[in-house]
Amino acid sequence: MVxxxxxxxxxxWANTYSCQPELYFEPVSVEELQQILDLAKQRSKRVKIVxxxxxxxxxxxxxxxxxxxxxxxxxxxxxxxKQQVTVEAGMVLSDLNEELASLGLALSNIxxxxxxxxxxxxxxxxxxxxxxxxxxxxxxxxLTLMTAAGEVLECSDSVNHEIxxxxxxxxxxxxVILTVTIQCMPAFHIQLQQFPKTLTEVLNELDIHLKQxxxxxxxxxxxxxxxxxxxxxHTDKPIKTTSNWLWDYAIGYYLLELLLWIxxxxxxxxxxxxRFFYWLxxxxxxxxxxxxxxxxxxxCLFKQHVSDWAVPIEKTGxxxxxxxxxxxxxxxxxxxxxxxxxxxxxDEILLSPCYKQxxxxxxxIMYRPYGKxxxxxxxxxxxxxxxxxxxxxxxxxxxxxxVRKDFENMYPAFKNFCSIREKLDxxxxxxxxxxxxxxx
Length: 440
Ligand SMILES: Cc1cc2nc3c(=O)[nH]c(=O)nc-3n(C[C@H](O)[C@H](O)[C@H](O)COP(=O)(O)OP(=O)(O)OC[C@H]3O[C@@H](n4cnc5c(N)ncnc54)[C@H](O)[C@@H]3O)c2cc1C
Fold this sequence. Notes:
Layout: E1 10-11, E2 18-19, E3 23-25, H1 30-42, E4 47-50, E5 65-68, E6 75-79, E7 84-88, H2 93-103, E8 105-106, H3 118-123, E9 140-146, E10 152-156, H4 161-167, E11 176-183, E12 185-186, E13 189-198, H5 199-204, H6 206-212, E14 217-221, E15 226-235, H7 245-248, H8 251-263, H9 270-282, E16 286-291, H10 292-296, E17 304-312, H11 316-329, E18 339-344, E19 359-367, H12 377-389, E20 393-394, H13 404-410, H14 414-424, H15 433-439
Parallel strand pairs: 3-5, 4-5
Antiparallel strand pairs: 1-2, 6-7, 7-11, 8-12, 9-10, 9-11, 13-15, 13-16, 14-15, 14-18, 17-19, 17-20, 18-19
Helix pairs in contact: 11-12
This protein binds flavin-adenine dinucleotide (FAD).
């Protein structure tokens, strides 16, 4: 009989949320997983699955049973002709990237980090950028799901279609994802070009940028009119990276963390810190060629609070304009750089922030220098207010103030997801506080 561990404390990556489940499990097989679910049922316990714990919210927190699928992490099937792979749900993207590279394959898009699990990234609607590319879950062609009743459902466009459209962004609410089949493509390199622009310029030329390059994003430096634009395009060129002594020797991190910490006593310094780092690191023109997964991943520096909402793409300029004006009018609020702006294609996934609309994600950040909390309430409240006013939908991994009524208004298919969840998990075995806030 599988044994759980008592006294385990879970902490998410940013160390902003934690919980102490009654029992913690790391099953080595689907049979063991099944036994844990049976035990939970007998003892009326709730169950949460944790991937790599990167979500900046309490989405995986539970007082009952927490299960990590780190042993269910293998590549189990390769269909070379279709360029599809089937993996166990606990596989970490960094391992998958290497497996794919050895097969001459790659994922068409991944997020900023690869030390996240396959089921975890699809479960919260993880995205990166490129208006021809959907959220990562759009690369999923089928999956298997173990429900609260212990049944294993195959789901794809042709089998259990409705459940498939829910389970591709599942929030951990529908059962345990066991395997995922992903559409890949031939391995490729990306040429990355980085160059400076003003915010006004980049917004005026938005359509041009979106057409000109496959993976377009930019970062805005709040309290200034400065941005750095990033283009990313498939290329046959060989890998060519430029070294940057500031990051290579971690001097940049130490300096930034120190300056942000000093700014907690003197917030009026923040615009100067922002300008200094822009000048030092982000104002240069840089061209590099990287293996695709290395090009998608970027440095997330140190522990942080983030919020990330999607708005309809045509609202990009309006939202950034309102945010910038509000910061100008409120000199008592000083915020950290960058504000990251990314673009994602519309899809049909029930809980996707891009459900039926091409979207722009605008990610704000407040670091915690040396673990110190920096006041962010006013910034967060105004950001959310602006996003709501402009038809925004929050990223599911990231904490926000929304409740069921808000989600019903924001997500046209929210009620469909709720009824699928109620059918698959009538006793609420996979619920926790995070999900109760969303569903009740
Ligand atoms: C440094 C950093 C950078 C990031 N960059 C991006 C980015 O570029 N774009 C973006 O959109 N997001 C980004 N995120 C958010 C991140 O992609 C998501 O939080 C993602 O869900 C993390 O994956 P994980 O494996 O850690 O999942 P977890 O946080 O562990 O879990 C996420 C959800 O999946 C569920 N789950 C996990 N495995 C299973 C399973 N087998 N069955 C059922 N449910 C399961 C959990 O219960 C939970 O509901 C970033 C986060 C960090 C910390």
